[in-house]
Design brief:
The chain has 171 residues and is α+β, with helices and mostly antiparallel strands. It is built from three helices and nine strands.
């Protein structure tokens, strides 16, 4: 999660919202492109996944001051409305507007997207760590050739070769 230390604004131009802390842990920090009625506006964006809604700040790209903030209720969003449009871009296709998030921090974007989709589908941010089975991608004919060479060299028997060949072809 990204830290944003300049969120506290002594000049009182902070928009109304629940996040007013100096050390807020945001779930996304990066470029935010908002498209409303075919018109694009680009900002620096900071997004916090709260328990009841998504808090979004649009900040000036020049000085980082908060220009606007709004929330999206989870009831107004579903996982199908979130789309990975590129390796470093996630898009929200909302009813009234489209939000495109862009960052160079792949881990942050992946974590943000996974937590958000998990919240929308299960109601929880927690992502269960499922041990992934090791995927062995191999060229079966090449593997059979290797075992055939072992057979020709007398290292394995004909029976061992046939058993291994059957195993590879059935996998």
């Amino acid at each position: 999660m990204g830290k944003l230390g300049f969120l506290f604004n002594p000049e009182a131009n902070m928009p109304s919202g629940e996040i007013k802390s100096r050390d807020v842990n945001f779930d996304f920090l990066g470029l935010l492109k908002e498209t409303v009625g075919g018109k694009d506006n680009t900002f620096n964006g900071a997004i916090k996944l709260d328990e009841d809604s998504i808090y979004i700040e649009k900040r000036s790209r020049l000085n980082g001051k908060v220009k606007d903030a709004f929330t999206i209720d989870y009831d107004d969003l579903n996982a199908d409305m979130i789309e990975r449009v590129a390796d470093n871009k996630v898009q929200f296709n909302l009813a009234q507007k489209t939000l495109l998030l862009k960052t160079l921090d792949d881990d942050m974007l992946n974590n943000f997207e996974n937590r958000l989709k998990n919240k929308l589908t299960t109601g929880s941010f927690e992502i269960e760590e499922v041990p992934q089975a090791k995927q062995i991608i191999r060229d079966i004919p090449e593997e059979i050739r290797k075992y055939h060479e072992l057979l020709k060299d007398g290292i394995i028997t004909e029976e061992e070769f046939e058993n291994k060949k059957k195993e590879l072809l059935n996998s």
